[in-house]
Amino acid sequence: MHLSDGLIPLWQAAIYWILTIALLALYMYKISKTEETEKVIVKTAVLAAVTIVASSISIPSPFGVPIHLFLIPLVVILLGPLSGVAVALLCFLVQFLFLGMGGITSLGANVVTMGIVMSFSTYYFYNFIAELDDRLGIFSGTFMGVIMATIAQVAILMVAGVATFEVLMATLVPFYLFVGVIEGIINVFIILSLFKLKPELAMVKKI
Fold first, then answer.
1. Residue 1 lies in a domain
2. Cβ count near 126 (within 10 Å)
3. CATH number at residue 22
4. Count of alpha carbons within 13 angstroms of residue 26, beta-carbon side
5. Which candidate, 10, 16, 22, 103, has a CA 20 to 30 Å from the CA of 87?
6. What is the pLDDT of residues 60-112, one digit of tens each?
7. What does the H/E/C string look like for the chain?
């Protein structure tokens, strides 16, 4: 889902960068106001490192295109949506610098889709449905986070004039529907196992 440099006009890329910086500033403000600033930063750093490594691994898929798990929904469920945005920014920056994934001018757009949209979609769907069932909440939050991020990327590419709605719906959506299901199932097992081993994680203040 990483957009590379040159796909989005610079003036549009600047708008996405502004949104990214605004959310990052809000994140910094929020953690400065919490009594557990150091703990939040350490947990965010650890999950950022895990996300960078795990999302860089290619997994074969029946579509002929390798899957890269996002892990942002996992971060969001454990730490909160703004933490998801911060981890996404760190992850994409490292992947661009060392793996050649994505780009610098497009980094803001990538954070908007896989950081902002995915994080807040995951957070709200998870919290709404988890009241009924934890497993369904984790799966639904993860799945809808991936789908809403895909829809956001379709919108960004259409506004940029790089592809038509029909082409994007026929290529991106089926693939990420599959990714959303796979990652949703994986997150159910990982997060419920973490909550069982360390129940305090379920009570962590979300930022």
1. no
2. 26
3. 1.10.1760.20
4. 14
5. 10
6. 777 677 788 899 999 999 999 999 999 999 999 999 998 888 899 999 999 99
7. CCCCCCCCCHHHHHHHHHHHHHHHHHHHHHHHHCCCHHHHHHHHHHHHHHHHHHHCCCECCCCCCCECCCCHHHHHHHHCHHHHHHHHHHHHHHHHHHHCCCCCCCHHHHHHHHHHHHHHHHHHHHHHHHCCCHHHHHHHHHHHHHHHHHHHHHHHHHHHCCCCHHHHHHHHHHHHHHHHHHHHHHHHHHHHHHHHHCHHHHHCCCC
Question: What is the residue whose two structure tokens read 């203040």?
Answer: 205
Where do we find the tokens 């760190």? 90
Token readout for 71 is 């892990």
